[in-house]
């Protein structure tokens, strides 16, 4: 059995990184390359850019097409790209780590479908999408490559991947293409059976999800999904730790922390706005009662306006410190 499948995940800084990677690949390349770049629903010219940069043909993947060596398949906008046996699979399922396309679904599906035939590479990007997917590749006998964080435009994704996996290779960007060319088509060692929880998690990504299905692989937590507001479940023994809601949204720890920080900041600004408005309104009410000679009521509203102003200052201090 040969290593004939390369999966690549990247985010911030990824366009330039992928162009450099494509430029370094040979015209004869004995593996298919499947790429996820976090582009959301935005139009993408990435396949054309990769063909201009290097010798291999590239196109946006289509659902249920054969995965062939020497071709670059790019996840299309707003769709998860996965592998189902020997063919591609596109799904417009729930976002993972706030991304669609996301890296983890591709890596997870490749690990389960192609096991030791897979070479997974994580390049530049923010937060932690791809860490769980690279761990899945490792668990199923694949080769793992991480861009040296010091050579990455955005080092978060490589650093978090290094925390999740001890990779076979940590390379600067300009060394990854030559290593992929050396590994593509090389013999693969004996393959382990994919862990059952990983297979079940992949099934949840490709089909309908439910509370009953999620509770087979996860435990309820006290957290709520920042996408839909549902309960989050912590996947048992996951490396790295991650959370999933029963509608399918999935988060790594750092992505969830980022979401919680954003939600808290949003709530604090909402509170600050309300306190400013309360201070303004109470000041006007106090002035009105002073004008009509009702000094006791005027004093009460003046004091209330002062409390609102003081609370607003405390929140402004918290926002400056955060």
TrEMBL record:
Q: What does the record give as the active site?
A: 11, 38, 129
Family matches, as CDD domains: CheB
Q: Write down the EC number.
A: 3.1.1.61
Q: Name one GO molecular function term.
A: protein-glutamate methylesterase activity
Q: What is this protein called?
A: protein-glutamate methylesterase
A GO cellular component annotation here is:
cytoplasm
Alphabetically list the UniProt keywords.
Chemotaxis, Hydrolase
Query: Which reaction(s) does its UniProt entry say it catalyses?
Result: [protein]-L-glutamate 5-O-methyl ester + H2O = L-glutamyl-[protein] + methanol + H(+)
The GO biological-process annotations, alphabetized, read as: chemotaxis
Annotated SUPFAM superfamilies: Methylesterase CheB, C-terminal domain
Where does the record place the CheB-type methylesterase domain?
1-180
According to its UniProt record, what is one Pfam family this protein matches? Answer: CheB_methylest
UniProt xrefs under InterPro entries: CheB_C, Chemotax_prot-Glu_Me-esterase, Sig_transdc_resp-reg_Me-estase
Could you tell me which species this protein originates from? Cupriavidus nantongensis
Q: Which Gene3D superfamilies match?
A: Methylesterase CheB, C-terminal domain
Keyword Cell cycle annotated: no
């Amino acid at each position: 059995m040969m290593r004939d499948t390369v999966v690549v995940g990247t985010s911030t800084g990824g366009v330039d990184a992928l162009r450099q990677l494509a430029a370094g690949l040979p015209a004869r390349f004995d593996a298919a390359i499947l790429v996820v770049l976090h582009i959301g629903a935005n139009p993408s010219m990435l396949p054309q850019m990769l063909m201009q940069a290097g010798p291999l043909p590239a196109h946006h993947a289509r659902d249920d097409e054969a995965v062939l060596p020497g071709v670059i398949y790019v996840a299309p906008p707003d769709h998860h790209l996965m592998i189902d046996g020997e063919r591609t699979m596109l799904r417009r399922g729930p976002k993972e780590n706030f991304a669609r396309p996301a890296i983890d679904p591709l890596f997870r599906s490749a690990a389960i479908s192609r096991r030791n035939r897979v070479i997974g590479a994580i390049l530049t990007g923010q937060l932690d999408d791809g860490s769980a997917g690279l761990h899945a590749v490792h668990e199923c006998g694949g080769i793992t490559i991480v861009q040296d964080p010091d050579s990455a435009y955005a080092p978060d994704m490589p650093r978090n991947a290094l925390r999740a996996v001890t990779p076979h290779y940590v390379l600067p960007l300009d060394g990854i293409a030559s290593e992929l060319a050396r590994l593509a088509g090389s013999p693969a060692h004996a393959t382990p059976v994919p862990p059952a929880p990983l297979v079940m998690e992949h099934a949840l990504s490709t089909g309908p999800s439910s509370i009953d299905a999620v509770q087979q692989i996860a435990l309820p937590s006290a957290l709520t999904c920042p996408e839909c507001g549902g309960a989050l479940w912590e996947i048992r023994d996951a490396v790295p730790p991650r959370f999933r809601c029963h509608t399918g949204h999935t988060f790594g720890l750092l992505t969830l922390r980022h979401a919680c920080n954003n939600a808290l900041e949003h709530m604090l600004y909402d509170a600050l706005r309300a306190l400013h408005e309360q201070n303004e309104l109470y000041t006007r009410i106090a002035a009105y009662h002073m004008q009509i000679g009702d000094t006791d009521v005027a004093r009460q509203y003046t004091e209330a306006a002062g409390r609102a102003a003081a609370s607003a200052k405390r929140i402004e201090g918290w926002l400056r410190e955060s």
